[in-house]
Amino acid sequence: MPKTRLNGIEIYCEVHGDGPPVAFLNGIMMNTAGWAFQTPVFARHHKVILHDMRGQGQSDKPQGEYSWDTHVEDFKALLDALGVPAVNLVGVSYGAEVAMHFVLKYPERVIKLVLGTAASEITPLLKAFAESWEAAAAERDGVKFFKLFAPTVYGNEFLQTRGDWLAKRAEAFARTVSEDWFEGFERLLKNFYTLNVTSRLGQIRVPTLVVAAQQDLIKPVALSNLIQSAIPQAEMVIIPDAGHVAIFEKPAEFNTVVLGFLTKGL
After folding, report:
1. Which of 30, 44, 107, 199 is deepest in the core (most CB within 10 A)?
2. What is the C-alpha to C-alpha distance for residues 69 and 211, in angstroms, rounded to an integer?
3. Which structural domain, as residue segments, surrounds residue 13?
4. Alpha helices, DSSP H only, in the chain?
């Protein structure tokens, strides 16, 4: 079911493979294609569930304000439509922040939880980064927007070794974005500014893995430490020499860590 109507809008969804279900929740600028290095690996032994949140990718981008609870209810409706009672939940960045809100509201729907390169509250530095993205988005220039955000989300090693790819990627990115994309991004970003869930993390009781990236500028290791220390018995792994987009920069390391966590105790 590539698209299904949930909560009054069309949500794009993909399902790959079979086995214990694992759902991946996108970062704020991502869509389902962003999991290209994870989907075929996890689908060997899992039912992989991907979707674009409202405001992202091929899903609708309705007018009005989005909220964490809106995303939570959209995801719950998707699991209901798929007939999946509970799922291993893996989110990165904005998706991890949605995952935290989801498990707090529907703990019975989560088997294990993986929070990648996430924050649980807005720090002044994180707010400044987000505001710079908002200002760049207002210009509606895809190349300029990519060139501004890329140095903030990729690690130093990746920038040094893949500089040529990044230059080409800016042009490719500009061809994929539109007024509709920018408007959706701006609505998602306005919701991001409301992030403030640290004080509630102690309520999470499902097995949790926090994955940080050593060279993450926008959501540094200290923010993952804060999450890990607040969730009872949460584990934490730091991926070396990776920036915020660790799933792309160090996919083998990310996949190995997450698969090991999901299969532990089985």
Report:
1. 30
2. 24
3. 3-122+195-263
4. 39-42, 68-82, 94-105, 124-137, 142-153, 156-161, 163-176, 179-192, 221-230, 246-249, 251-263
Is residue 1 predicted with pLDDT exceeding 90?
A: no
Of 28-42, 66-80, 155-169, minimum mean pLDDT range: 155-169
Per-residue pLDDT tens for 122-165? 999 999 999 999 999 999 999 999 999 999 999 988 888 887 88
The whole-angstrom separation of Cα 264 and Cα 266 is 6
Whole-number Cα distances in Å, 185 to 54, 65, 157, 244: 10, 12, 27, 18
Has residue 266 got a pLDDT over 80? no
Q: Which amino acid is at 221?
A: V
CATH code, domain with 73? 3.40.50.1820
The answer to whether residue 68 is domain-embedded is: yes
Phi, psi angles (nearest 5°) of residue 62: -65, 155
According to DSSP, the β-strands at 235-239 and 110-116 are unpaired
Is 265 a residue whose pLDDT tops 80?
no
Please give the structure tokens belonging to residue 244: 């915020």
Distance CA 223, CA 207 (A): 19
Tokens of 42: 């996890």
Domain count, the chain: 1
Residue in 119, 120, 169 with CA at minimum distance from that of residue 149: 169
